[in-house]
Amino acid sequence: MGLDRSEVAKLLGLAASLDQRTVGVADVFAWQAALEGVTFGECEAAIIAHAKAAREPVRPADILVAVRDHRRRRAERTAIPHRPTDRATAAAAAKHGMADVYAEMGWTYNAQRAAAMTVPCPLVGCWAPVGRPCRKYGNRYQDMHHERHTKAATKGVRR
Ligand SMILES: [Zn+2]
To answer: Which parts of the sequence belong to the DNA-binding phage zinc finger domain (predicted)?
Structure first.
């Protein structure tokens, strides 16, 4: 999968409008060669995200890293619910810690989620205990409640 030259030219045009670079034909060829295995939409999103977060002009490596990270996060979000839960396996693995639970269940390890699991959820009505995921409460459920992530992060700082 590769981008065609008109797509690459559009991406360079976007980058140029954000960082005032000058763009030549050689840039189009170089970017086309570098941007392998990514879609136009992914590149466009990565360029805009880069412009919001960094002062340096965006380079193909920035785009490739951003796309790879985005794909990994998306895979982590979708990987968890697709596997049926084997309670006995999960319970046995829970004795070893969350990293092992994820390994045992074939889930993608997510450090932030695992950290949140080490504290009980402080959200009124959820109060999920240590080692258990958050409960759906109203329409505020997002896998782990935001308050719990905050609590886990604060606990880490105090340690
Ligand atoms: Zn919760």
So the answer is: 113-153
Lookup: tokens for 123: 């959200």
CA of 18 to the centre of ligand 1 (A): 40
- pLDDT bin (cut points 50, 70, 90) of residue 159 is very low
92 C-alpha to ligand 1 centroid (Å)? 23
Give pLDDT, residue 88: 77
What are the tens digits of pLDDT across the range 98-127? 666 666 666 666 777 878 888 999 988 888
Separation of alpha carbons 141 and 115, rounded Å: 18
Residue carrying the six token digits 């991406």: 11
- Identify whether residues 143 and 102 lie together within a single domain: yes
List, as ranges, residues with CB under 5 A of the ion ligand 1. 121, 123, 126, 128, 134, 145
**Which of 79, 106, 129 corresponds to the end of one domain?**
79
Rounded to whole angstroms, the Cα distance separating 136 from 84 reads 19
Same domain, 15 and 69: yes
Classify residue 124 as left (phi > 0), alpha (psi -120 to 50) or beta. Answer: beta
